[in-house]
Every structure is written in C-alpha cells, then in structure tokens.
Write a structure and sequence with these properties.
38% of the residues lie in helices and 20% in strands. It is α/β, with parallel strands linked by helices and 182 residues long. A hairpin with a 4-residue loop joins β1 and β2. The protein is globular.
C-alpha cells in the first residue's frame, strides 16, 4: 500500500511539474484578421473592412431580424455607440439576414428605426464571400467581435447581450488601445 501511495504521489507531482513547465503566458490579442468585406449598409452606402483603420477600435455586432435579444439590446448598443464615439471607438451592426431579400431588408430597416439606431448597419449579400465564409458560420445571435485598428480580432467572439458582458468588452477595448498587458 505504501508503494502505491508513493507511486501515486510521484506521478501526481510529475504531472504538476510538467504542466507548470509547459504553461506560458498567452497573447490574448488575436492575430486573426477580420474577414475582408465590401458590402452596403442599410442606406445603400458602400462599406469595407478598410473602415477599421479609421478608428482605434471597432465593435462589430451581428444580429438578425428574428432574434429578440438582438433587437432588445439595440438601444443599449446605441447608448454605447454615443459614448464610444468620443473615444474614437466605432460600432457597426451586421443584419445577418437583411440581405436575403427586399422583405428582410425592409424589416431590418424598420427595426433599426423603431429602436432609434444611428450606428451603421451592414446588409450582407448572401452571394458574397463575406456572407458565405463568415456570416453563415455564426451559430448564435447576437455575436459581437472587437476589432483593432489593424483589422485583427481582439479575443473570442462574445455571444449574447453585450451590456451583460461589459467587463469582457472593456478588457478587449483596453487591449486594443494598449491600456493593459496581454
């Protein structure tokens, strides 16, 4: 029995030692670029991923017409947008299903108007690579990405209400602004 306990303790300590040796500080700032896109917004204006260079940070919020949480958080996002503008932080919405047809686009525009949204909202074309390779892969709404000036995604996507995740959002913003160490 003593041999078993000694063997067990030796094995356990070896695992702890090896795990500690392999542990390294991870860079929380992703080097994954946000996908390139050239789309139109709900007003028909062209918008591309080059917009990221105009701001220190851009928050990209994916929503759809049938998502109650997405629609309910829009006034909160508008409030954040108004606050963040003073800090050179942008907010862009992406109405994931608004580009499917004229009816979906009209519904998306109606929702945005009803909720008092003034931040730019993209209506992705389902025939374009941005939609096919990225938007269509989103499995939960709302999904929010934080993107730095260099076009790289900061951290993992945030799924769910943004205001409920303000600590995570602020941490990503701080990383992008260089206000904290990764």
């Amino acid at each position: 029995m003593k041999k078993f306990i000694c063997l067990f303790l030796t094995l356990a300590l070896s695992i702890v030692f090896l795990a500690g040796c392999g542990a390294q500080k991870q860079d929380l700032v992703s080097k994954t670029p946000f996908p390139e896109f050239s789309e139109t917004d709900m007003d028909g204006n062209n918008i591309t991923n080059e917009i990221f260079a105009d701001y220190d940070v851009t928050i990209v919020n994916f929503w759809n017409n049938g998502c109650g949480t997405c629609i309910a958080e829009m006034p909160e996002l508008e409030e954040l947008y108004q606050q963040f503008q003073k800090q050179n932080i942008n907010l862009i919405g992406v109405g994931a299903d608004s580009g499917e047809d004229e009816e979906q686009l009209a519904l998306a525009r109606s929702i945005l108007q009803e909720k008092g949204v003034t931040y730019q909202n993209i209506s992705p074309d389902p025939e374009q690579a941005f939609y096919k390779d990225f938007v269509s892969e989103i499995t939960g709404y709302p999904t929010t990405y934080v993107v730095g000036r260099d076009g790289n995604i900061i951290g993992a996507p945030m799924v769910g209400n943004v205001k409920a995740q303000m600590d995570s959002l602020q941490a990503r913003i701080d990383l992008a602004l260089g206000n904290t160490e990764a």
